[in-house]
Amino acid sequence: MDRLLAASKTSSRNPARDYAVLLLMFRHGLRVSELCAMKVSDINVNTKELHVTRLKGSDSGPHELYNGESQAVKAWLVERAKMNPPEDCDTLFVSERRKPLSRGTVWVMIGLVAKAAGLEHLSIHPHMLRHSTGFNLVNKGTDIRTIQGYLGHRAISSTVRYTKLDSKRFAKLF
Predict the structure, then answer these.
(1) Which residues are marked as active site?
(2) pLDDT tens-digit profile of 150-161?
(3) CA 164, 170, 171: angle at the middle one, nearest 5?
(4) pTM of the complete model
């Protein structure tokens, strides 16, 4: 993730947007459609809160903005304002054509940033960022029910997959 984020700042045509996109997708486990549908009103940089509207029957709710996210979003909002999107375009992330960012554009951007980061061999795509969130939280020792709520999973079976690769999962049994 560190390499992807660094590459987005130097290799992208829209570094402020692409950095904010990657950071929010990873830190909040966003699906690409959830990111593309996010509204400007869903985020409050002053209170450091993001309202995540989950799709696919998942549970929506507020998320705290963490280290650097408020600054990244503020930087993007400055660039977004310079683009002068139409008044009826209230999506947080817009394309160079001043229209809501599409799923396809996010896919292409992630591929280009991954290539610039020297990670093209991993075939990185948007949903990998969501899975990375789950694995990262498990590896930090986060409770599985907390991860379930954070990712909006209604069924715990959707969340437990992230524990299967955790080498420490049996370390404290006895």
Answers:
(1) 31, 56, 127, 130, 153, 162
(2) 998 888 888 888
(3) 130
(4) 0.90
